[in-house]
Amino acid sequence: MAHISVAEKYAGISSLLAHYTDSAKPLMLLAETLLRGESTLTQGERELIASYVSTRNECVYCASSHGAAAKHSPGMNAEIVSAVQCDYQNAEISDKLKTLLTIAGQVQISGKAVTPDAVANARAAGATDREIHDAVLIAAAFCMYNRYVDGLGTWEPGNPEVYDQMGIVLAEKGYIRER
To answer: How many domains does the chain divide into?
Structure first.
């Protein structure tokens, strides 16, 4: 049971968004912009960053739903998502994405934990300033989203199929839609 009054028929952030509609629009617009807006990073890569940070933050709802969205994005699959969540350095992803995940992991610890070496490694792997920016902003935003979801004690489905269905909807329709 959530710590505050929410729309109990929904899980995770959906319960908060349905009950607190004034904050729902800007939060979902931010997610839409970060994960589906203009970027040279693919939608799947950005969802992987969100899922990876959420995994590190132990936010099951966000790690699972964004992992499922990544899985259903072009060029991604369940094996890649699982590998990134467990050990991204050995996942079958580009070296550039590995360096961006390193930066995202540093942001998850603290913004000040991002090292010049990590940024230099990302640049050496081909990451642009925009891609470094996007990785940092996605990681920072998902630290906030994770703390919002878990800090208010929202419930999380135990059934992986629920997350898979969420992932399909997120990958195909995005974050801005009527609830």
So the answer is: 1
